[in-house]
Design goal:
Helices cover about 55% and strands about 15% of the residues. By secondary structure, it is of the alpha+beta class. It folds into three domains: about 110 residues, Serine Threonine Protein Phosphatase 5, Tetratricopeptide repeat (Alpha Horseshoe), CATH 1.25.40; about 70 residues, Tetratricopeptide repeat domain (Serine Threonine Protein Phosphatase 5, Tetratricopeptide repeat, Alpha Horseshoe); about 80 residues, Alpha-Beta Plaits (2-Layer Sandwich), CATH 3.30.70.1070. Helix 5 packs antiparallel against helix 6 and helix 6 runs parallel beside helix 8.
Length: about 270
């Protein structure tokens, strides 16, 4: 009898604000105008035809290499497409291109956020934190600073540092009380954190199921969690639930000795 994943969760919607902000093109009449060079690519993105949208973006970049703002838009949309295709490495390259080459672009700040958001989506929280903090030190616009405070609160919560998370939530509410981020931050109030050890993430459920059975045979208290990531299903394989981080780290050390790469993940009651 096939085992089903224990839980179905959606990742925090706020994480996708900058990555999928390509949608801002699609609700803008200027962008959907027939004369807009990226109109076709953006329409394909809206239809979730990401491969075709990427191809359309590349055509525009090749046809109008001297248009910096258009190239920045095309790279940003391409990056958002790759996020939806689970190709995070290529998405980062597109966002990095904007950060390195188009600092005066309207998409510079969103691309910088995208670099960190991609790390967040992969649960590389230490790396995400470095990028968020580096961007904050640059003195972003007020709108993006509000987003950064929200992201920093989330990533610190994921790392199990509740005190640091609350500090950024307080900054958010004090400096941007009427922002969307301040309203959405209410879901992080009073969150209790627990820890688990993640040993794998699979887009193929059969592979996840086989891995779970392998770990069970070795005596591990393993379970799987079915997540929605960028609108697609991802099965994460985890072991144990601990009130303290040290217990999770002890399990991680045992897994390392058994030949398994793993990482400690802080979770909230919602997850």
């Amino acid at each position: 009898m096939r085992r089903q994943p224990r839980v179905l969760v959606s990742l925090p919607q706020g994480v996708f604000v900058s990555l999928l902000a390509a949608g801002m093109f699609l609700v803008c009449g200027r962008c959907l105008a027939a004369e807009d060079p990226l109109g076709k690519a953006e329409a394909l993105y809206l239809q979730k035809l990401y491969v075709q949208a990427i191809e359309a973006c590349q055509e525009v970049i090749q046809e109008r290499p001297g248009d910096a703002e258009l190239s920045a838009r095309a790279n940003y949309l391409t990056g958002a497409c790759y996020v939806n295709l689970f190709d995070f490495l290529t998405a980062k390259k597109n966002f990095q291109t904007i950060v390195d080459q188009y600092k005066n672009s309207a998409h510079y700040e969103d691309a910088y956020l995208g670099l960190a958001d991609v790390e967040f989506l992969q649960e590389n929280f230490d790396e995400a934190l470095k990028v968020y903090q580096a961007f904050l030190e640059q003195g972003p616009s007020p709108k993006r600073r509000a987003t950064l405070y929200f992201r920093l609160a989330e990533v610190y919560l994921k790392k199990g540092d509740v005190a640091a998370s609350r500090q950024y939530l307080a900054k958010l509410r004090q400096e941007f009380p009427d922002s969307f981020e301040a309203r959405d931050a209410g879901r992080m109030n009073g969150e209790k954190v627990w820890y688990t050890v993640q040993v794998g993430a699979f887009t193929d459920f059969k592979n996840a199921e086989a891995f779970v059975e392998e770990l069970k045979a070795k005596g591990y208290d393993v379970y799987s969690v079915l997540c929605l990531l960028a609108g697609k299903k991802l099965c994460r394989v985890r072991i144990g639930k601990f009130a303290g981080r040290r217990e999770a780290e002890a399990l991680q050390e045992k897994l390392t000795l058994d030949g398994y790469y793993s990482k400690v993940v802080a979770l909230t009651a919602r997850e």
